[in-house]
Specification:
With 256 residues, this protein is of the alpha/beta class. The chain has helices at 47-64, 106-116, 118-125, 134-144, 146-151, 158-167, 174-177, 192-197, 220-226, 240-247, and strands at 3-9, 13-20, 25-32, 44-45, 72-79, 85-87, 97-98, 154-156, 171-173, 183-184, 189-190, 207-209, 214-217, 233-235, 238-239. Helix 1 crosses helix 6, helix 2 packs across helix 3 (118-125) and helix 2 crosses helix 4 (134-144).
């Protein structure tokens, strides 16, 4: 038999879906993890909880349904949008992830619209500055935790972090990148003009990959932890709302 695995790195937990090559659902597994609120209106998660949850659902899935590692032909991911994970030059997490539903960044949103300009922001990023997006979280870190900001080498979103832990490759998938306020959405490339106006280093943004593009392969280390076979392809995946739209058939013009 041949199967694919879909992983969803959500706000409440990680879910895994086992799907046969012909598209039939063959099994599932899930693990919850906590949300922390150190102050009113703040929501954070420990990326290590996400990774440990991923290890468990993958190993549970293979064990529960008696699947051999070599039968898994590929892995895709979806995940909560906008939530920010900051890595240092060694690829280690600097602080807890700031989530999409965190609302500490109102001041930074006003500053983004002031520095970039609302019209230019809409032209480049196709969105206004809202607290849920990623760019305000980066500015908040610079404003409030300068020591942590100085350590930042990479900015990742949640599912892209889990792909990094599976493959060792630091990349960001295009539909998630579109929700950062840092992407020129129409050109499908990072926005030099927004990064310059916000005085942020372009180097913290990873290379972009398409949703269906193979973005890396499971490492030997990740294989030992999860039960997967080393070398299993892992594709870019998609932001959860983008994946939900595809699942609802919103794949062409004039559908909503």
């Amino acid at each position: 038999m041949a199967f694919l695995i879909g992983l969803d790195i959500g706000t409440s937990g990680v879910k895994a879906l086992l799907v046969s090559i012909d598209g039939n659902i063959a099994g599932s597994a899930s693990v919850e993890y906590p949300i922390y609120s150190p102050r009113p209106g703040w929501t954070e998660q420990d990326p290590e909880d996400m990774w440990q949850g991923t290890i468990k659902v993958l190993s549970d899935l293979l064990t529960k349904y008696n699947i051999k590692a070599k039968e898994i032909k590929g892995i895709g991911l979806s995940g909560q949008m906008h939530s920010s994970i900051f890595l240092d030059s060694n690829g280690k997490v600097i602080r807890p992830a700031i989530l999409w539903n965190d609302n500490r960044t109102t001041k930074q949103c006003h500053r983004i619209e002031s520095l970039v300009g609302r019209d230019l922001l809409l032209k480049e990023a196709c969105n206004p500055a809202l607290e849920g997006f990623t760019a305000p979280k980066v500015l908040w870190l610079r404003d409030n935790e300068p020591d942590n900001f100085a350590k930042v080498r990479w900015l990742l979103l949640v599912k892209d972090y889990i792909r990094y832990r599976l493959t060792g490759e630091i990349k960001m998938e295009i539909s998630d990148a579109a929700g950062t306020l840092l992407l020129n959405v129409k050109k499908r490339q990072w926005s030099d003009v927004i990064m310059k106006k916000l005085e942020l280093p372009l180097e913290i943004l990873p290379d972009l990959v398409d949703s269906t593009e193979i973005a890396g392969k499971v490492t030997k280390e990740a294989a030992k932890l999860t039960g997967l076979a080393a070398g299993t392809p892992v594709v870019g995946g998609g932001a959860d709302n983008a994946c939900g739209a595809v699942g609802a058939g919103i794949v062409e013009s004039d559908r909503a």
